[in-house]
Amino acid sequence: MCDLADADVATEETALKVEALTLIGGVDISFIKGNDTLACACLVVLSYPSLQTVYAECTMVHISEPYIAGFLAFREVSHLVDMVNVLKTTRPDLVPQVIMVDGNGLLHHQGFGLASHLSVLISIPTVGVGKTLLMVDGLSKDVITLAERIPLGGGGEMLELRGNSGTLWGMGVCMNAKVTSPIYVSVGSGISLLSAVALVRRCGQFRVPEPVRQADLRSRHYLRMNGYA
DNA sequence: GCGACAG
DNA sequence: ATCTTGTCGC
Protein backbone atom coordinates (compact mmCIF):
# COMPACT_ATOMS: atom_id res chain seq x y z
CA MET A 1 0.00 0.00 0.00
CA CYS A 2 1.19 3.46 -0.74
CA ASP A 3 -0.27 6.76 0.35
CA LEU A 4 -1.73 8.62 -2.57
CA ALA A 5 -0.02 11.74 -1.32
CA ASP A 6 3.32 10.09 -2.00
CA ALA A 7 2.54 8.98 -5.53
CA ASP A 8 4.68 10.08 -8.42
CA VAL A 9 3.50 13.08 -10.33
CA ALA A 10 2.87 10.99 -13.41
CA THR A 11 2.70 7.44 -14.58
CA GLU A 12 3.92 7.78 -18.15
CA GLU A 13 7.52 7.09 -19.15
CA THR A 14 8.01 10.80 -19.39
CA ALA A 15 7.02 10.68 -15.75
CA LEU A 16 7.49 13.86 -13.88
CA LYS A 17 8.90 12.53 -10.64
CA VAL A 18 8.05 14.22 -7.40
CA GLU A 19 11.68 14.37 -6.48
CA ALA A 20 12.28 16.32 -9.69
CA LEU A 21 9.46 18.74 -9.01
CA THR A 22 10.83 22.03 -7.78
CA LEU A 23 8.60 24.64 -9.38
CA ILE A 24 4.82 24.83 -9.91
CA GLY A 25 3.14 27.49 -11.98
CA GLY A 26 -0.31 29.00 -11.63
CA VAL A 27 -2.34 31.12 -14.05
CA ASP A 28 -5.53 33.13 -13.81
CA ILE A 29 -7.26 36.10 -15.42
CA SER A 30 -9.33 38.60 -13.43
CA PHE A 31 -11.95 40.85 -15.00
CA ILE A 32 -13.38 44.26 -14.21
CA LYS A 33 -17.08 44.54 -13.35
CA GLY A 34 -18.22 46.86 -16.09
CA ASN A 35 -15.53 46.10 -18.64
CA ASP A 36 -15.65 43.06 -20.91
CA THR A 37 -12.57 43.80 -22.96
CA LEU A 38 -9.98 44.67 -20.35
CA ALA A 39 -8.61 42.15 -17.88
CA CYS A 40 -5.51 41.26 -15.90
CA ALA A 41 -3.65 38.04 -16.66
CA CYS A 42 -1.28 36.65 -14.06
CA LEU A 43 1.38 33.97 -14.04
CA VAL A 44 3.02 32.91 -10.81
CA VAL A 45 5.67 30.32 -10.06
CA LEU A 46 5.92 28.77 -6.62
CA SER A 47 8.76 26.75 -5.17
CA TYR A 48 7.84 23.18 -4.33
CA PRO A 49 7.16 21.88 -1.79
CA SER A 50 7.72 25.08 0.18
CA LEU A 51 5.11 26.91 -1.91
CA GLN A 52 6.87 30.27 -1.82
CA THR A 53 6.16 32.64 -4.68
CA VAL A 54 9.39 33.06 -6.62
CA TYR A 55 7.90 34.75 -9.67
CA ALA A 56 4.76 36.80 -10.25
CA GLU A 57 3.87 38.76 -13.34
CA CYS A 58 0.65 40.61 -14.07
CA THR A 59 -0.29 42.11 -17.43
CA MET A 60 -3.34 43.99 -18.67
CA VAL A 61 -4.77 42.20 -21.69
CA HIS A 62 -7.44 42.92 -24.27
CA ILE A 63 -10.19 40.29 -24.36
CA SER A 64 -11.69 39.90 -27.81
CA GLU A 65 -13.75 36.74 -27.49
CA PRO A 66 -17.00 36.44 -25.51
CA TYR A 67 -17.42 33.97 -22.70
CA ILE A 68 -19.20 30.84 -23.82
CA ALA A 69 -19.17 27.76 -21.61
CA GLY A 70 -17.08 25.17 -23.40
CA PHE A 71 -15.07 27.76 -25.31
CA LEU A 72 -13.09 29.35 -22.53
CA ALA A 73 -9.81 28.50 -24.22
CA PHE A 74 -10.60 30.71 -27.20
CA ARG A 75 -11.04 33.61 -24.82
CA GLU A 76 -8.08 33.08 -22.51
CA VAL A 77 -5.31 30.78 -23.75
CA SER A 78 -3.53 33.18 -26.05
CA HIS A 79 -2.86 35.55 -23.18
CA LEU A 80 -1.67 32.77 -20.92
CA VAL A 81 0.62 31.44 -23.65
CA ASP A 82 2.10 34.92 -24.04
CA MET A 83 2.90 35.11 -20.36
CA VAL A 84 4.57 31.71 -20.32
CA ASN A 85 6.67 32.66 -23.33
CA VAL A 86 7.85 35.78 -21.57
CA LEU A 87 8.87 33.63 -18.63
CA LYS A 88 10.70 31.20 -20.90
CA THR A 89 12.84 33.92 -22.44
CA THR A 90 13.15 36.14 -19.39
CA ARG A 91 13.65 33.61 -16.60
CA PRO A 92 14.27 30.20 -18.16
CA ASP A 93 15.56 29.13 -14.77
CA LEU A 94 12.08 29.59 -13.33
CA VAL A 95 10.06 27.68 -15.91
CA PRO A 96 7.90 25.26 -13.86
CA GLN A 97 7.57 21.52 -14.52
CA VAL A 98 3.79 21.78 -14.25
CA ILE A 99 1.19 24.56 -14.25
CA MET A 100 -2.19 24.70 -12.52
CA VAL A 101 -4.93 26.40 -14.51
CA ASP A 102 -8.15 28.00 -13.35
CA GLY A 103 -10.30 26.00 -15.72
CA ASN A 104 -10.78 22.40 -16.78
CA GLY A 105 -8.72 20.06 -18.86
CA LEU A 106 -10.32 16.71 -19.74
CA LEU A 107 -13.48 17.68 -17.86
CA HIS A 108 -14.94 19.30 -20.93
CA HIS A 109 -17.55 18.69 -23.62
CA GLN A 110 -14.84 17.79 -26.11
CA GLY A 111 -12.49 16.43 -23.48
CA PHE A 112 -10.17 19.35 -24.18
CA GLY A 113 -10.62 22.43 -22.02
CA LEU A 114 -8.47 25.47 -21.31
CA ALA A 115 -5.86 23.53 -19.35
CA SER A 116 -5.46 21.07 -22.23
CA HIS A 117 -5.04 23.83 -24.82
CA LEU A 118 -2.46 25.62 -22.73
CA SER A 119 -0.40 22.50 -22.10
CA VAL A 120 -0.16 21.66 -25.78
CA LEU A 121 0.71 25.20 -26.80
CA ILE A 122 3.54 25.63 -24.30
CA SER A 123 4.74 22.03 -24.04
CA ILE A 124 4.41 21.96 -20.28
CA PRO A 125 2.16 19.58 -18.28
CA THR A 126 -0.91 21.22 -16.75
CA VAL A 127 -3.59 20.44 -14.22
CA GLY A 128 -7.09 21.82 -14.63
CA VAL A 129 -8.73 23.23 -11.49
CA GLY A 130 -12.37 24.24 -11.72
CA LYS A 131 -14.32 25.88 -8.88
CA THR A 132 -17.74 24.98 -10.22
CA LEU A 133 -18.71 21.79 -12.00
CA LEU A 134 -19.12 21.77 -15.75
CA MET A 135 -21.99 19.44 -16.54
CA VAL A 136 -20.74 16.96 -19.08
CA ASP A 137 -21.78 13.43 -20.01
CA GLY A 138 -24.62 13.44 -17.53
CA LEU A 139 -22.64 14.85 -14.63
CA SER A 140 -24.80 16.91 -12.29
CA LYS A 141 -24.73 18.45 -8.86
CA ASP A 142 -26.09 15.31 -7.25
CA VAL A 143 -23.27 13.30 -8.78
CA ILE A 144 -21.21 14.92 -6.10
CA THR A 145 -23.32 13.37 -3.38
CA LEU A 146 -23.66 10.02 -5.07
CA ALA A 147 -20.05 9.84 -6.22
CA GLU A 148 -17.70 7.28 -4.81
CA ARG A 149 -15.83 9.11 -2.11
CA ILE A 150 -12.26 8.11 -1.47
CA PRO A 151 -10.76 9.37 1.78
CA LEU A 152 -7.38 11.01 1.57
CA GLY A 153 -4.72 11.58 4.17
CA GLY A 154 -5.14 14.83 6.05
CA GLY A 155 -8.91 14.51 6.32
CA GLY A 156 -9.63 15.39 2.72
CA GLU A 157 -11.31 13.21 0.16
CA MET A 158 -11.78 12.88 -3.56
CA LEU A 159 -14.98 12.13 -5.40
CA GLU A 160 -15.00 10.32 -8.70
CA LEU A 161 -16.54 12.36 -11.48
CA ARG A 162 -18.00 9.62 -13.62
CA GLY A 163 -20.36 10.40 -16.46
CA ASN A 164 -23.19 8.25 -17.85
CA SER A 165 -20.69 6.67 -20.23
CA GLY A 166 -18.60 5.53 -17.30
CA THR A 167 -15.80 7.88 -18.24
CA LEU A 168 -13.77 9.27 -15.35
CA TRP A 169 -13.55 12.95 -16.29
CA GLY A 170 -11.88 14.14 -13.14
CA MET A 171 -12.09 14.23 -9.37
CA GLY A 172 -13.91 16.44 -6.94
CA VAL A 173 -11.31 17.23 -4.29
CA CYS A 174 -11.66 18.52 -0.76
CA MET A 175 -8.30 19.80 0.43
CA ASN A 176 -9.01 18.84 4.05
CA ALA A 177 -11.77 17.92 6.47
CA LYS A 178 -12.73 21.54 7.04
CA VAL A 179 -13.29 22.28 3.37
CA THR A 180 -16.84 21.34 2.45
CA SER A 181 -17.17 22.42 -1.18
CA PRO A 182 -14.77 20.61 -3.51
CA ILE A 183 -12.75 21.87 -6.44
CA TYR A 184 -12.81 19.87 -9.65
CA VAL A 185 -9.47 18.52 -10.77
CA SER A 186 -8.93 17.19 -14.26
CA VAL A 187 -5.95 16.38 -16.42
CA GLY A 188 -4.61 19.00 -18.80
CA SER A 189 -1.98 16.79 -20.38
CA GLY A 190 1.36 15.31 -19.45
CA ILE A 191 0.18 14.10 -16.05
CA SER A 192 -2.16 11.42 -14.73
CA LEU A 193 -5.34 12.17 -12.82
CA LEU A 194 -4.19 10.56 -9.60
CA SER A 195 -0.89 12.39 -9.75
CA ALA A 196 -2.72 15.63 -10.41
CA VAL A 197 -4.92 15.06 -7.39
CA ALA A 198 -1.95 14.14 -5.23
CA LEU A 199 -0.15 17.28 -6.34
CA VAL A 200 -3.12 19.56 -5.82
CA ARG A 201 -3.53 18.26 -2.30
CA ARG A 202 0.04 19.19 -1.50
CA CYS A 203 -0.63 22.77 -2.43
CA GLY A 204 -1.95 24.23 0.76
CA GLN A 205 -4.99 24.11 3.01
CA PHE A 206 -7.33 26.51 1.25
CA ARG A 207 -10.09 25.29 -1.00
CA VAL A 208 -8.16 26.45 -4.06
CA PRO A 209 -4.58 25.18 -4.46
CA GLU A 210 -1.94 27.83 -3.80
CA PRO A 211 -0.63 28.33 -7.35
CA VAL A 212 -4.08 29.21 -8.71
CA ARG A 213 -4.98 31.08 -5.54
CA GLN A 214 -1.89 33.27 -5.79
CA ALA A 215 -2.51 34.04 -9.46
CA ASP A 216 -6.07 34.99 -8.55
CA LEU A 217 -5.12 37.15 -5.58
CA ARG A 218 -2.33 38.91 -7.43
CA SER A 219 -4.28 39.65 -10.57
CA ARG A 220 -7.09 41.15 -8.53
CA HIS A 221 -4.67 43.08 -6.39
CA TYR A 222 -3.12 44.45 -9.56
CA LEU A 223 -6.46 45.73 -10.80
CA ARG A 224 -7.19 47.51 -7.54
CA MET A 225 -3.68 48.89 -7.29
CA ASN A 226 -4.12 50.48 -10.71
CA GLY A 227 -7.50 51.99 -10.02
CA TYR A 228 -9.85 49.63 -11.79
CA ALA A 229 -11.90 48.10 -9.01
C1' DG B 1 -38.95 22.93 -26.57
C1' DC B 2 -36.47 23.08 -21.79
C1' DG B 3 -32.61 23.08 -18.81
C1' DA B 4 -27.46 23.39 -18.14
C1' DC B 5 -23.60 26.11 -19.00
C1' DA B 6 -15.41 26.19 -16.70
C1' DG B 7 -14.28 31.79 -16.32
C1' DA C 1 -15.90 36.55 -14.02
C1' DT C 2 -17.92 40.48 -10.71
C1' DC C 3 -21.18 42.71 -7.01
C1' DT C 4 -21.50 42.49 -1.38
C1' DT C 5 -21.86 42.37 5.22
C1' DG C 6 -21.57 40.12 8.53
C1' DT C 7 -20.15 36.18 10.80
C1' DC C 8 -18.08 32.04 12.61
C1' DG C 9 -13.69 29.87 13.79
C1' DC C 10 -8.59 28.91 14.33
What features would you describe in this structure?
By secondary structure, the protein is α+β, with helices and mostly antiparallel strands. It has a single domain, classed as archaeoglobus fulgidus dsm 4304 superfamily (archaeoglobus fulgidus dsm 4304 fold), CATH 3.30.2170. The chain is built from five helices and nine strands, in the order E-E-E-H-E-H-E-H-E-E-E-E-H-H. A nine-stranded mixed sheet has the order 3-2-1-4-5-9-8-7-6, with helices on both faces. Strand 8 and strand 9 form a beta hairpin. Helix 1 packs parallel to helix 2. The chain is globular and about 45 Å long. The N terminus is likely disordered. The structure holds two DNA strands. Pfam families: Endonuclease_5. InterPro entries: Endonuclease-V. GO terms for molecular function: RNA endonuclease activity producing 5'-phosphomonoesters, hydrolytic mechanism; single-stranded RNA binding.
The rounded distance between the terminal residues' Cα atoms is 50 Å
CATH class: Alpha Beta
The overall pLDDT, averaged over residues, is 91
Give the low-confidence spans: 1-13
Listing every helix as H and every strand as E from the N terminus to the C terminus, the arrangement reads EEEHEHEHEEEEHH
Number of strands: 9
Which radius of gyration do the C-alpha atoms yield?
17 Å
* CATH-level-4 superfamily name: archaeoglobus fulgidus dsm 4304 superfamily
Q: How many helices does DSSP assign? A: 5
Strand order across the largest sheet:
3-2-1-4-5-9-8-7-6
Strand composition percent: 25-35%
Largest sheet: 9 strands, mixed
Counting structural domains, the number is 1
CATH architecture: 2-Layer Sandwich
Structural class: alpha+beta
The percent of residues in helical segments reads: 25-40%
CATH fold node name: archaeoglobus fulgidus dsm 4304 fold
- How does the overall form come out from the CA principal axes? globular
